[in-house]
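LAB NOTEBOOK - FOLDING QUEUE
OPERATOR: T.R.
BATCH SIZE: 2
PURPOSE: Compare the predicted structure-token outputs for two unrelated chains run back to back under identical settings.
PRIORITY: normal
REVIEWER: second-year student, initials M.K.

ITEM 1
FIELD SEQUENCE / FIELD STRUCTURE:
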Amino acid sequence: MTYPVELLDTTLRDGSYTIDFQFTAEDTALIASALESAGIRVIELGHGLGLGAARAGKGDQASTDEGYLRAAADVLKEARFGVFFIPGVGTEDDLRLGADCGLHFVRIGTNITELDEAEPYIALAKKLGLTVSSNLMKSYAVPPAEFGARARQAADYGADVLCLVDSAGGMLPEDVKAYLAAAQERTDIRLGFHGHDNLCMAIANSLTAMEHGATILDASLQGMGRSEGNAVTEVLAAMLQKRGLLPEADINALLDVGEAYIRPLLHQTGRSAIGVTTGRAKFHSSFLGRVTRAAVEAGIDVRELILRLGARDQINAPEELVQEIAAEIAAEGPRGAVRVDIAATGRAVPEDFLGQVRERALELREKSRKYAQESVFNVVVSPHQLTCVSPFVDTNYGCAMSNIMLAEPDRLAEVLETIDGLVDYVLLDPGGRPAPTEALKSTVLLTYLDHEMWARTTCAQITFLLGGQLHGRRLAITGSSPLVLRAAGDFVEAGAHVAVASDAAPDASIPGAERMPLEEAVRTAEAVISLSPRQPAITADHVSEMEHATLLYDGGIGSLHPEAVPAAEERGIRVVRVDMRPSLAATALERIAMKRLVDTHMGRANWNGVDVVAGGLIGRGGDVIVDSISRPARVIGIADGKGAIVRPDPADERVYRVRQAIASHALARTKPGNG
């Protein structure tokens, strides 16, 4: 019998591995309907490990099996939908549930050496009126001739389809050809192919499978799937159309659907070393945890363990065999390391201040582009600082950031002019003066109070240095007025017993804090905090009065006398300097997000006849509140007209219409030229 070539999209099933099985029933309806609209006629959905997998402890899912099935049944008009089923994971009742929910097909997956486990479930599925595919997982674990025999066995059990499964993504086109030829020698059962992309062969193998008798080809949007993913639906559909097949598929629509709904969920790029290794070894990633633990315990390269295990057993990873091979590798000793040579750049460091500013701005641009981050140049005008440019760019906390300390306010305009256009944002504390905004034409200005952030950093860092909470802790603090006032207030609010040095902020009252001479305060303090930028306040004499377990904190960068540090080290007292990088980056990201909220996300609109508001605007009673006017992703609630939000009624027709509009917005943004 001749069958048409069909593309089976498995985004909603195999793709769920990538997001820890967290597709919702709403996601299922949205993506399934979009796939159908784009011409896909066979769709697989549900938990990655099939019906009953969540109940069997194989990973929680965001909905129930019934929720997924009914969501698909409600929206699909032409496409057939099905599920995966593994004997021992799913039960007969799961199959009955599927049939009751309108399921069209089931793919019963067994390791190729365990096909006999599928027989009763194939029989039941056929009795329930389902089309049945026998998916022979890890097909490569047996020679082609045995695969042919298993194909005959599946046909005898009553399967309608026999699927060659490259579970580890390690097969080559010649392998695919040989296995399918062996199946065709033994049976005329319809053939399919499911391939993974560990060695970047999923598309080539799918096309080879099609050329040699497979008429059901698996793929997923954006290649979303377990391990290194699957064949890419959008690409495979395009390749099939180039060969005159799959005429009903709308490639541009598939590209839009993948771009709008799937690409935002994908966070891994490139090919992982483990993914490629599992492909080389034809090793199933479900055993990765066990093998990794054994490699760590033995102190060996897990990749070598995977390769050798794959050569011995491609079906399972028995603990005894894993440990045996790990011991063999460990006995061989370490292999040579990769040689890395670092060449001198030969770049001269500018001697003049503005030259250094420009040099660092260029480095910020470089790092931000490499790591796909916002670039932020922090500029602080303060008489307590020395004019200098930070020697490095930090990318560890969500944005690429560097710093300029500026003691001369009159130089701020020329600094900003030098930065303008080279970085995305300037985070500026202008030292109480008006910011020369005219100096920036393209770089965006964000303002903040540096001493507020500094004090907040001190409180956060001290909290973690003292074990995670400050309640009941005894702290001594000295330093300059603005920092002492803010930090001491934060410490008191956190429940600490705070002693403020008598000469620190002498004219200010700090409710809840005690005043005393610093010499007295340090004797019982668990942490001594000095917040006097560039002005030493803690001496060796103070250190001599401290307990051995005291934490000495340089919160002012240079607020300890030179002899205080060795004196503390000699007595076993920890000395820590303030590190503002996380707080500074968080401040920048907060300001960036707030600007976007006000400039972009805030607003009112009418979508599909429903009034919506976003971004903190107070809606009229009954208005639907969404997360963004320009880039909406979800309904937040319903406005009560007084500034509060109430939970939406799931049956509210207006909410349904707004959700439809949100889905349409996402598709519209995929068009070239749309934001």
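ITEM 2
FIELD SEQUENCE / FIELD STRUCTURE:
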Amino acid sequence: MSDELSVDRAACMILESCEEEIVTAFDRAGSLKPCPIGSESLCCKVCYMGPCRLVGKTDRGVCGATRATVAARNFARSVAAGASAHSDHGRDLAFTLMAAAQGETQGYRIRDVNKLYAVAELLGIETKNRSVNDIAYDVGKEALDNFGRQRGTITYLSRATRRRQALWKELDIEPRGIDREVVELLHRTHMGVDQDAEHILDATMRCALGDGWGGSMLATDISDILFGTPSPLQSQVNLGVLKEDQVNIVLHGHEPTLSEMIVAASSDPELLDYAASKGAKGINLAGICCTANEVLMRHGIPPAGNFLSQELAIATGAVEAMVVDVQCIMQALADVAKRFHTKLIATSKKAKIEGAEFIPFDEHKAYDSAKAIVRAAIDQFPKRGSTRIPPIKEELIAGFSHEYIGYMQGGLYRSSFRPLNDAIIAGRIRGLAGVVGCNNARVKQDEGITKIIRELIRNDVLVVVTGCAATGAAKDGYLRPEFMEEAGAGLREVCEAIGIPPVLHVGSCVDNSRILTILTQCATEGGLGDDISDLPAVGICPEYMSEKAVSIGTYVAASGIYVLFGVHNPVGGSPEVVDLISNGWMKKVGGGIVWEPDTDKLLELAFAHIDRKRRDLGLAAYDPTRFGASGDRLIEKLEQQLGQEQVVGLYSANPSSSTPAAES
């Protein structure tokens, strides 16, 4: 039954309607069982005397490698690959920024000059009496220098708290250059090199920190400079955002350079006229995965779904083109597209896909490339057959950059995290949680994500979300502006005072770097210790599947946060490595990773950690009844006067207002 596969009603409808037509990731996961040896890192493939399966009485490989060494190597290689993916994204953006600054690109310009100046200051670049383009070029060049640096440290480590910087230095895990750490980690895990599990895992943290505080953070900042820093906006989510009478183009992947130009081309009068000549009433864009979040955060383009929705979007029969670049793109899409009129268009020189049309995207001719892609999609519209667009979509608010979160608490000239810290100190907010990561076809789509978020906000934990977890939360209504009925009274009081939902969408998976910045600002604001590791905060990745998620979890842990993963433990075959990554890292860096597939137990661990951190700070124990009544009185009074539906409408009509219009 489809309802055993997903909590998303739209996904279930498509799965039921196309059951005999296509094979999806859900079907393949049901028929293809994971390797029990590899899933616990008891298989070593780093040389060709193997693969060596360390099971039963066999506890060493041909070379003598132990289970701990093998598990640590496998984990390290996953982190290296994940760090490479996100950091390579940042490198491409740095090249684009430099080309735009020199006038060599088409369609790109500096959209957020204030962010440019802020980043230039962080990178130590002179701005006085210099042109915007000259500053932008130097920012791009300094970003690239961070990739190839051989000595010293990456620049953005200075963004961390002083205590955190000192700890990284003491432990010798400061990343030098982003690329150097990836290469060295792969070298260390070659046969016959590093053979001490703890030493391998220390290098793994250093590599991951190069991703979180380097490649990913640079990617986020340069995206903001080129395309604009997000601020809150309203949109919709789920497969119901596809249009019956318009050309539907689904943007899937991770590169904002491509999607930004397609957004621009989709409103080009020439192409709108061309769409009309084919019988369409317009051009409708929707997103999948992190490209969805990039264009949502800046333009309000609605996400059609997250990772496990990609095949289902095509199966609606309403998608003229799915345009993909890199990361999280299933090879099976080409087979699904062949059964419909959909054109699958691959655009990255790094990622050709058998069965897809290849239209290379060139930043130097960006707008022309985008127009060619949109035109190819329009040509498919007359070929469309019957459709089955589920009538299911949900309202959402997104666009909470760390700059806006500071602004909303203090205004343009007094940007501050003081109100948030005070709310945590007082106990109105119990703590903070980042719920992030992928979907995994081995578990029910979005179930872990939505259950964890529901229980966190019921217990007055303010949640920030990114990536596919954000889309999962949005599909279930958790990003609606009026979504307060599930929130605890203390959290609800704070959110209503500021005018925000209790779950804040802060971007794509590369934008987990925004969470690092938010937590650092909380730590430096005062009253909650002097480092990220002091905060009553947790990171949770309920349905992870990619190596990027493992890199993210590692850099978040190395930054001082307790991280919880769902699904399964990828190093479970080595109790020694499990202990090093959890207890060992907690003692060493103040953060660690724990895998717990049982959602209820995962939540117990999260609340226990948050409450322990509150005790360590000398804060009052969390009491959900202490402040609740004060935050509910106005709402109760208005409901008596106007009725519940009208009160909800007042908030949803003006989500940025701190009080409903009726009060004034």
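REVIEWER COMMENT (ITEM 2): The first strand starts at residue 43 and ends at 44.
FOLLOW-UP: none requested
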